[in-house]
Amino acid sequence: MNAKFACSLALALLLGVSAQAKDWPKIKIATEGAFPPYNMQNADGKLAGFEIDLAADLCKRMKAECEVVAQDWDGILPGLNAGKYDAIMAALSITPKRMEVIAFSVPYVSSPTVLATTKGGGMENLPGTGTRINLDDDAAARAAIEPLRAKLKGKAIGVQVSTIQADFMNSYFKGVADVRVYKTAEEFNLDLEAGRIDAILAAAANVKAAMDTPQGKDIVFTGPAFGGGPIGIGSGVGLRKSDPELKGMFDTAIKAATADGTLARLSNQWFKLDLTPPS
Amino acid sequence: MIDPAFLTDTIGQLLGGLPLTLSLSAISILAGGVLALALALLRRSSGIGSLFVRAYVFVFRGSPLLVQIFLIYYGLSQFPALRHSVLWPFLRQPYWCAVLALALNTAAYASEIIRGGLIAVPSGMIEAGRALGLSPFRLFRLIVLPLAVRQALPAYGNEIVIMVKSTALASIITLMEITGIAHQIIGDTFRSFEVFLCAGAIYLALNSLIARGVWLIERRLSPIV
Q1: Do A180 and B190 touch (CB under 8 A)?
Q2: What is the separation, in whole angstroms, between the first and last Cα of chain A?
């Protein structure tokens, strides 16, 4: 601890920065509040979900007082750099493109991307159902996806705007499927149930949550699960690049929560699946 | 901070949404205009018709267009009966839901604008027409309507411009018009300032053309300047 402090002091002096490492007694965390079970609003308007519980646990470990606020998905990254809040916990997938703009903690959840459709909609058991395609090897992945492309020709597929799923859809199915871009997951679930779209592409955890609602009882997984590559290594806390101390605090707290099983317990509680990232 | 190459590229991408913005505006303004004329005439009648129009205007002018779009798109599709009706092939598509909401909304405003134009027709003109022995239909077509249109045009020009801007709300029901594409580019680049600046410039250019067009028509319809 002393060595670390001396190190950062030396670094601060080296850079000519007069202020000492910033203390974080209070942290303001933004979440979307419309992405169950990660984050959502209760019937009484209070924020709840996996990330809300996790934030409470991490803040206790960081000995910080936290306030979690709801923020529209569209403006969630610009708002961080504008200083409206200090951290984002909103199922924010870690991607190279986002890392150009913001910093990330180590991942705290990792959910594969899947296609889902409704029973009797004619899209069940697409090629590759039950298999997993790793997108790290782009050429092999494209070959594996080829039979799926034929089946998705002209089909309306719902994705959420500015998500890795939207990027994935555009890079692998552009010009094949009719990609519909929604603001929230709730909206494409509604349209899938109404029969306006043939399938949705989303993270497994969200689809599972939709399936467990009374309206979502007819939703089924179809086709392969996707991971790696543009889908990324999981979701982490989004932070400003200028706050390395805060990143260090979150990293330590997440590693501790992984080690003592808190992460697995919360994941099972909210997702009915253990989505602890492989370390 | 301003990067000319990025701005040019963004404008190019945003212009890809222009045809959809134009078609949403044109169809909803035309359909809404026809409906508005019918509503304005019905409003002048006595009895139940006038009452219906007043209720219609009250509802569509008094609630946000955003809410109307949500109700028509996500609300109606909640009823299984509607999903099995003949209307579903039409209401299934986000495009027609947006056109419907925009047209119903503009009809409420425009009916009041047209009503104002009709009221402003001097009664002396109408009496003169009657004295010439014109039938009520010819009186309306030859005297009342042209004068009412001329009177209503400046306010109606406003409504057209507002409608073009309102099409931006169609992006919330998955339509990739100019604003929808802007959101997508921001999602990819996080450069909200430059992208919205470009989108704003496109709407501004479009609306200045429309304002100019309305002004030219106004000038043509004014016999003496």
Answers
A1: no
A2: 24
